[in-house]
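Changelog note: in this version the structure field was regenerated for every chain. One regenerated record is shown below for reference.
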Amino acid sequence: MKEIKETSGRDAEIRPRRKFDPEFKRQAVALWLNSGKTARQIGAELGIDESRLYDWKKEFGPARPLSQAQRDSELEALRRENALLRQQRDILKKTLGIISEPRAALPTDRRLES
């Protein structure tokens, strides 16, 4: 004889897992942060759990402001990179100028042609 297990109400409510695209997540977080409502209220309106909003906020929420020391170090790194890129650009410009000069302007050595 087979035993038949009764399913609880929770097991009967299993739904397929929903997937949300990144744009929906960004918009949900923006709605939550800009509306002044709680995560629970927004979650209920959107039909999602409030814990998802908190997870999405970590991923898609606004960036935390940097400290003054972090800003200074980032600014210094960007200045160094900018200087390096300018040097590379100048070298390429000079190289292009040398390559594009007409051949007649270059001195010829007659001894090499013999």
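Spot check on this record: The chain has six helices and no strands. Residues 73 and 79 are 10 Å apart (CA to CA).
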